[in-house]
Amino acid sequence: EFGSIGLHLDRRGRDYYSARGENGSLWESGKYGLGVDAPGEAGSPQGDIVIKEYPFSEREFTSEDLFVLSSRGEPRFRLWRAYAFDRMVEDTLATVAYLRTVLDTDDARERHTIKDILRKIGEPAVPMLADAVVHDGPRAKSEASWILGLIGGREAFEALLELSRSESWKLRSSALNAIGKLKGLNREDRARLQERIYQVLTDTDEIFYVRKDAAYASGSQGICGLLGLLVGALEDAHYAVRFSAAEAIRALSKGECEDVAVDLIAGLPDLDAIGTAAALHASQNLPPARKLDVAEAVVATWAGSEQAPEVALARLLAGIEPETSQARARLEALKAKLPADSWKTRALLGSE
């Protein structure tokens, strides 16, 4: 039951200690710990933090060695980390093969290091990651789908679409989010994605995280055929889904979809106050005249109601720049419908 003895001995160089100990001193730690830092200048750069040159070329590094170095977080290892990172990016084949073996790491710093290296490598890493999404364990699948979304290669679509049907809601969510970031999907891809998102958004038992990412993917990939479902999702029970649906509609209104305002106005009578507020947020990217149409439809639906989404309406009106005198008159008429005693609406509209 003696315990352990700890001995620290540093013979030369100017050194820094974050806790107990200092350069050129002797100190005790606990009952059986002793530290000795002898005074004296370093004769070589090894181990001296004030020297900025490191002997990288004096040894060979395996992929595992380089990964360990590139994953170090302490500031004093920053030069080693940068050297190892660059080496791994340069040696693409060996790096991709090695990182496949550690994709399932539970260490957060290592996961981010893997992400940064493979994102830098880019397209050459996609085949390995796509295979991992199908065949590896849950943690590796999640890591691989995350990185595939960041790389954005269309070649990952098939594997990610399959993963979106996983029994794990976390993997379904991760896959749909990654699909939303892919570039260059063709017409067939988009049709299959629309079918999958439709299944998600109409499944009343689906986890809200998955619905949120499904809505995101529909907006980022410009799936116009899902507009009606997205309008309905504006009154989802969870705010994350409502916000994601509103952002998706905003994205679609800037794309190739035909008059988005038509779907918004058609869906307004079926929305509650929260859903209507989300619809007003979703209208922010519409042309000025169509914003006025949506605002007038909201006023007609909620006139006289104590639950009217007046703040959301004021926010939409504040962003309208009328292009004609008729539009200006419509805008002023809508502003007059707002309660004069509400400091929130006055502040949004710049009124005294």
Give a nutshell description of this structure.
By secondary structure, the protein is mostly helical.
Characterize the structure shown.
The N and C termini lie far apart (79 Å). 56% of the residues lie in helices and 4% in strands. The chain has 18 helices and 3 strands. With 352 residues, the protein is mostly helical.
Structural class by SSE content = mainly alpha
Low-confidence stretches: 47-51
C-alpha geometry: elongated
Q: Please work out how many helical segments DSSP would assign.
A: 18
The average pLDDT value, as a whole number, equals: 89
Helix content: 55-70%
Order of helices and strands: EEEHHHHHHHHHHHHHHHHHH
Largest sheet: 3 strands, mixed
CA radius of gyration is 29 Å
Distance between the termini: 79 Å
Strand tally: 3
Q: What's the arrangement of strands in the largest beta sheet? A: 1-3-2
Question: What proportion strand?
Answer: under 5%
Helices and strands in order, then pairings?
Layout: E1 6-10, E2 26-29, E3 33-37, H1 63-70, H2 78-90, H3 92-100, H4 108-121, H5 126-135, H6 138-151, H7 157-163, H8 169-179, H9 187-201, H10 208-220, H11 227-232, H12 239-253, H13 260-267, H14 273-282, H15 288-302, H16 310-318, H17 325-337, H18 343-349
Parallel strand pairs: 1-3
Antiparallel strand pairs: 2-3
Helix pairs in contact: 1-2, 2-4, 4-6, 5-6, 5-7, 6-8, 7-8, 8-10, 9-10, 10-12, 12-14, 14-16, 15-17, 16-18
